[in-house]
Every structure is written in structure tokens, then in C-alpha cells.
């Protein structure tokens, strides 16, 4: 099973650690693509900081993030699970998992990244700022770049197991699973139910996805189909509605009334 997560917009910057080594990251076939994105981002932020702030959607009070990007090649790194933060990652709380769940996190979790395409929790990366909807001079659309680059690496990562896709819509555009994987693709949506009405609420969505992934890692089950995943989540106490299979996979709606 591969659980594909979105990144967090905010990141914790390590104060020390060895600099980035792209060739040491997982999925080494992505190294050339990662080099191009890194070079384009660093060049923009180093040579055109005002333009960089606009490209990155930053205010004048956030120009320190432009300077941080300009020095990414020399910046200290830490494990990805210590870099990404925010509601989903707070709820997942990887640091407090049991030893067995931590081992499963290392092999089953993958995090979508605008800068690196995809990383595993043990990959050492610096804190950076680059949104999935950005268009970078010398590179073009970040989402378009990764759509052209990620396919083989992601298919290899999924292997013969189930893909549990928890990405937000922005990052789902980086890679669409091919139709032959559809029987083994489960996309998960979280719905907040109040007085019989269901709707998507960002905070509930992120927090619930974090708790859901934590529960799956602690349980250790390895479902091979979306239907089997839905049964496992039901056994773990979640309310799950299973959609009809499509050429894109099967949507599972996890219904919650509170975080």
C-alpha cells in the first residue's frame, strides 16, 4: 500500500544539518527533474527577488522566504517528516507512532512536493516555499513540469499494491494514475456532517486525513482494493461511503461529525 499525501504550505526550517544531496533522495530517477526545478527556483529568488515574491505569492513581510529559497543548495536539511507541518501532519504526529508504525510510515508514505516531485518521510530536505500552482521563469508551470516527469517513478512506487490518494486537488494535478491502476486506486474525501447535511470543510478534511493515516499505520493492515480499505476503515471506527469504480479509481467518502 502506498499512501500519497499533500505537502504543507508551512514548513519547519532546521537550524542545522548537512546540505541537500539530491542524489540521496528516494526515487533517484527523478534527480534530473529535481535539479531543473531547484535551479530555476534558486536562480529566480537570487537574481530577481521582487519578481520571486510575486511568483511565490508572498507579501512584503515574507521576503525572508525568498532569501531562504535563494540559498536552498547550501541550507541545512532534516528528515521530511520534520520539515512538513500543519493540521494534517500535526494530527498524524509521526514522531509518536509505535516502532512498527514508524517502519510502515517509512515504506508506505509518500509526500507530494512542488520542489522534489515526491519524497519519503526519511528523505533529508531543506525548508522551501513553492506552491503547486506557481509558474517559474525558466521552468514553466510547476504542476505541468511534474505531470511530464513523475509518471514512471509513481507507477514503480505503487507496484502491485493499493494507492491511497489523499492529495488536495492542486497536487492531484501533478500525476494522474493511469487507467490500468484504477482498480487499485482509492481517493479519499472527508465530509463533515451537521444536521444531515454533508460538506467539505478544510480543517476537518486535513485533521481527519492525518488521524486516518495514523490509524492505518498503527493497525498495520495491507488492503489490496478500495473495498478492502473501506472495510478496514469501518473496522477502525470510521463511517465510509464507497463510490462506484471509475477509470480514475474509487472514491471513499469518510463522514465525520467532529474532529
UniProtKB/TrEMBL annotation:
<dbReference type="GO" id="GO:0005829">
    <property type="term" value="C:cytosol"/>
</dbReference>
<protein>
    <submittedName>
        <fullName>Peroxide stress protein YaaA</fullName>
    </submittedName>
</protein>
<dbReference type="GO" id="GO:0033194">
    <property type="term" value="P:response to hydroperoxide"/>
</dbReference>
<dbReference type="Pfam" id="PF03883">
    <property type="entry name" value="H2O2_YaaD"/>
</dbReference>
<dbReference type="InterPro" id="IPR005583">
    <property type="entry name" value="YaaA"/>
</dbReference>
